# Entry
Amino acid sequence: MNFPKHVLRADIDPAWLLRVFTVIPVVLILLAGGCAVWIYFFVLSLLPQSQSLVETPGLSANVQVVRDENDIPGIIGRAQEDVAQVFGYVMAQDRLWQMDYLRRAGQGRLAEILGPDYLSRDRVMRAISLSSGNLCEKEKLGDRERAWIDKFVLGVNQYIATHADKRPVEFSLLDYHPRPFTPEDLMSIVLGLAWESSPASKVDPVLIQLLGRLGKERALDLFP
# Structure
């Protein structure tokens, strides 16, 4: 049995097709370029701006912040406590995200913002914090050092409080806000950095295995 053949034919202008396939890539390129420019200026707007004078509550006198051609700040003031306060302010201005990351790393709280992949590391740091006891307490410092830390923390928190709308882009990407710093947070940073720079995390497990296999006497002969 023969069925009739129906042939569908559309008359399409080749010039029209050429225009369509030319316009679409151009539009996509323009959209991508516009997004890239927007992201660039958005991130740029969050970067610290050079300041020649910082006036914050608690200073006994004006403190000058001078940045060189690489935007590295130098701080000039009459009193060390004033310099410490502005130092905290400027460090938060330049490195607030890194400071919060190091604080969380030293306290075993990275999984709260970076996910469960960091749980094992957090457990290790919390165990270290408990076992270290009061090795990194502010009370072990002298009066001068404690006063310096208090002023530094004051400067950090002044920046956090006055720049809620201009924080590093990492906070927006992870959708959280940094809480104020405390002197204990600085001690946590010291502990975390000390642990990361120590060979103990690699050497101690090996020594414990040797102790278990060789016994205390022979192990001490190898590693007195």
The radius of gyration is 29 Å.
